[in-house]
């Protein structure tokens, strides 16, 4: 009973305490706040999930970039390893090639020092070269042929030179009288070159080659630029040079005053105001390339032809013959036509002297090839014709009386000329024959050129040419040849230059090379028949010179 009463009292007390009116509760709005908190928590959870996704994507991207970088590094290492291996292999191949080339030159070229690339101090006999088993006429037949067919041309050559020189003197004097000394070129005296002035001309008709040097009017002068003085020299520019037209008050290398704008208060100490404002002169306008101060070979050819035509019209009334241009591609190729129908050709070649040497720039000289055609009209061919004449004259003084060196060249030139008429021209020219002879002259003792050695030296000359053709290598005698005597006075740039291979076109043109080799052996095959035939019967083309023209 007491326990039940206690429980009732406890319930009543609990109800009173929890009555809202007696003790109002502070968290009566908890249900509403809980819903807002839940919404905020859900929104925050969504933000956290989005941030987590973004972070996961960023981590994945960074991992992908790291993997890509590692892959690129691995590929780069592999490429470097392969490149290193390839460079090593290339180096080994180059070393092997150089070793083989050195061995070939030392062991294969050593027994044949007649090759131009070898030493020319000692030149043993060339008995090993068979010339394909072809034989040349014996000494007696060669002597008879030379006496009957070639020696007689010497007197004709002297008469021809005398007549041509007299006429050219008169022609150039008329040209000078027509020139204005203030604006026109100054023409100097001619210089005789090539076979007619070296006493080995045999081909008919006899042809005189005359250099005509010219100089610009004051205040201009020519500044020569040799291609061989620069290193390295392109293969197609070897043997050429350029000529710069420079005023006397200018630096040949150029002044910056004509390349930059000076201030109003600044003055060039070299030129001054008048020099900077000068108009273009007739020399620069007519003879130089467009937009460049270099002499244009084509413009000079046109000027020279025009000047010769005017000079001939001035003196034509004095002569009983006509004068005409022979070849369109050569400016000074002239031909005298007599009333009898006969003619006499000669060449007047405009040239420019290289500094104070005997080296000349020529605009066009087809009989002295040096390789490929010039790439530009401002490229001028270097001619050593004056040096060649001087070298032959100097060498002849040291040789025995009646030496056979020119006789060998004459016979070889005769055979080449006749073969060219039979099968057409080839890549071999008289200049190649003369170059081979010049190399042999510095290789043989003077006693080896006695008159009695004509057959041996001719055989040696032809075998020398055969080896040069087979190797496609015939070096220019003067360019880069340290064997040339110092007394010749060659420019130092020419002596130190790389040797020029005159047979370089054969390396690039296989058809020309094959034709030249075939023509060479065909010439050797026909040599005995030609020499025997011309020894017995002198053809009409070796008849005497036409009578001398009358000067009125």
From TrEMBL:
One of its GO terms (molecular function) is protein kinase inhibitor activity. It is found in: Cell membrane; Nucleus outer membrane. InterPro entries: ITPRIP-like, Mab-21_HhH/H2TH-like, MAB21L/cGLR. Residues 38-82 form a coiled coil. GO terms for cellular component: nuclear outer membrane; plasma membrane. The keyword Nucleus applies. Residues 1-15 form the signal peptide. Belongs to the ITPRIP family. PANTHER family: CELL FATE DETERMINING PROTEIN MAB21-RELATED, INOSITOL 1,4,5-TRISPHOSPHATE RECEPTOR-INTERACTING PROTEIN. This is Inositol 1,4,5-trisphosphate receptor-interacting protein.
């Amino acid at each position: 009973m007491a326990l039940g009463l206690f429980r009732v009292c406890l319930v009543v007390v609990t109800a009173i305490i929890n009555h809202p009116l007696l003790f109002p509760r502070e968290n009566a709005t908890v249900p509403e706040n809980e819903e807002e908190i839940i919404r905020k928590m859900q929104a925050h959870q969504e933000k956290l999930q989005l941030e987590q996704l973004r972070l996961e994507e960023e981590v994945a991207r960074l991992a992908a970039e790291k993997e890509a970088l590692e892959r690129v590094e691995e590929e780069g290492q592999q490429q470097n390893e392969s490149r290193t291996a390839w460079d090593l292999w290339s180096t080994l191949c180059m070393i092997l090639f150089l070793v083989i080339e050195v061995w070939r030159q030392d062991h294969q070229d050593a027994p044949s020092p007649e090759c131009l690339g070898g030493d020319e101090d000692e030149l043993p006999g060339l008995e090993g070269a068979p010339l394909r088993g072809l034989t040349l006429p014996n000494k007696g037949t060669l002597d008879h042929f030379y006496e009957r067919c070639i020696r007689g041309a010497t007197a004709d050559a002297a008469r021809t030179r005398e007549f041509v020189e007299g006429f050219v003197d008169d022609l150039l004097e008329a040209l000078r009288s027509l020139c204005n000394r203030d604006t026109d070129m100054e023409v100097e005296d001619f210089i005789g070159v090539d076979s007619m002035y070296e006493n080995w001309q045999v081909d008919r008709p006899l042809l005189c080659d005359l250099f005509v040097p010219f100089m610009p009017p004051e205040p201009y002068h020519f500044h020569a630029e040799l291609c061989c003085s620069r290193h390295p020299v392109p293969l197609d520019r070897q043997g050429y040079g350029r000529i710069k037209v420079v005023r006397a008050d200018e630096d040949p290398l150029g002044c910056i005053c004509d390349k930059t704008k000076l201030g109003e208060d600044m003055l060039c100490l070299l030129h001054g105001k008048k020099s900077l404002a000068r108009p273009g002169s007739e020399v620069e306008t007519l003879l130089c390339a467009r937009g460049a101060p270099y002499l244009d070979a084509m413009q000079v050819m046109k000027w020279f032809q025009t000047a010769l035509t005017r000079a001939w019209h001035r003196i034509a009334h004095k002569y009983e013959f006509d004068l005409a241009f022979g070849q369109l591609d050569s400016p000074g190729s002239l031909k005298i036509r007599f009333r009898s129908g006969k003619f006499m050709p000669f060449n007047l070649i405009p040239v420019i002297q290289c500094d104070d040497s005997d080296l000349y720039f020529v605009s066009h000289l087809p009989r002295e090839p040096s390789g490929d055609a010039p790439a530009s009209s401002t490229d001028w061919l270097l001619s050593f014709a004056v040096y060649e004449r001087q070298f032959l004259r100097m060498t002849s003084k040291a040789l025995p009386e009646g030496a056979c060196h020119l006789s060998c060249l004459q016979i070889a030139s005769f055979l080449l000329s006749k073969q060219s008429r039979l099968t057409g021209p080839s890549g071999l020219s008289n200049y190649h024959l003369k170059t081979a002879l010049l190399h042999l002259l510095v290789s043989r003792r003077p006693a080896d050129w006695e008159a009695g050695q004509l057959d041996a030296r001719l055989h040696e000359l032809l075998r020398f040419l055969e080896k040069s053709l087979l190797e496609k290598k015939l070096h220019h005698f003067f360019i880069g040849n340290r064997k040339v005597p110092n007394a010749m006075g060659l420019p130092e740039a020419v002596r130190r230059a790389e040797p020029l291979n005159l047979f370089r076109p054969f390396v690039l043109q296989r058809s020309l090379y094959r034709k030249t080799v075939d023509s060479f052996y065909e010439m050797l095959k026909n040599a005995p028949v030609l020499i025997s035939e011309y020894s017995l019967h002198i053809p009409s083309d070796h008849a005497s010179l036409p009578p001398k023209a009358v000067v009125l």
